[in-house]
Amino acid sequence: MIVELISVGTELLLGNIVNTNAAYLSEMCARRGLSLYYQTVVGDNWERMAETIRTALGRSDILLITGGLGPTEDDITKEVVAQVMGRRLLEDKHTRERIQAYMEAYAASAGLKEIPENNWKQAQIPEGARVLDNENGTAPGLILDDGGKHVILLPGPPEEMRPLFEEQVYPYLGELSQEVIVSKMVKLCGIGESSVAEMAADLIAAQSNPTIATYAKVGEVHLRITAKAETEQEARKLLKPLVREVKLRFGPYIYSTEEKGTLEGSILDLLNDKGLTLVTAESCTGGMLASRIINVPGASEVLKAGLVTYSNRMKRKYLGVKKSTLKTDGAVSEKTAREMARGGCEQTEADVCVAITGIAGPDGGTEEKPVGLVYIGCCAAGKIKVKRFQFTGGRAKVRSQSVSAALTLLRECVLEQYYHS
């Protein structure tokens, strides 16, 4: 089935808000095995929105429309869809009661005396629509089926849209398909996208069912293997040989085969299984590495401390970096990264330390040490490994790449010293 995404909102057209919903929904549609051929962004204009919806209905089976379901005057998605599809708007008692309960709780916490009148607009539902309860806001999702066409309306805020999509829309899309689709994600680190493409070239060239697709992330490459069949058992049977072959080819680089698996989560599992503790020592990344790790539930069992030693004085005070090293080699050097990694373990008595020092830019670079130069060191079981990187891009990109590279080196050292030694 052909699906089309329509993102509603003038703020999206003007670039005031990044359209993260489109990227998310595109990936989820691919996971469901739907053919996504078109994406459109349209402003809060009745005529242009109506034209966009009519065009989409003429060429696609499923329309996923996000945004424009709020209580303000320019939130007109529901009204336009109702007009295009020839439906009346009727007040839905269930939705009104949910809005009232939600707004009463909000009003009490915000000190409001009454519910704003415009919120009741959200209880108006196109006739015959299926209502999708929104547990995180007042705008419900909606599904309208008409002559083999399926129009799905979702709220714009990602924190409302994603849970609603995953819990109610994604299963519904599965019901529409006559085939069962099963996919397996294989996540890699420590290898570039071009190398992955080269190693998997014959598999990609020969693909039919199952298919294999690569997705480049910052410091990672993900492989999605997807099979279609009449039953789940048949689809999994088709999937198995290709998954096995991918694991054989990329074994050392695979950190997870779980859909929601993360690199930092897999590293914490490795450390936790051996009863090891970790400390991070950061300069140019300013705590981003520690933040990635702390985002994982249960991180407190492993992470002892996250040190941000931005100045040379703090590197000396908290990590024991030698004054002579900073003077002769500089803060951004192989030797400083080595001493930061060693000092992190010594000062905190942690088993493992990963350290980052570099020049994120846009200023501070020289011909000898340009912007993007980063040294990352890791101390594990008393052994220290340091790697030099020359990243490209702006400040944010350099810092993000540094964190991903640090996690990859950390995983490499933990495996070498505690699992493969």
TrEMBL record:
It comes from the Bacteria. It holds the Pfam family CinA. Residues 4-176 form the MoaB/Mog domain. CDD domains: cinA. InterPro entries: CinA, CinA-like_C, CinA_C, CinA_KH, Competence-induced_CinA, MoaB/Mog-like_dom_sf, MoaB/Mog_dom. Belongs to the CinA family. This is Putative competence-damage inducible protein. It comes from Candidatus Egerieimonas intestinavium.
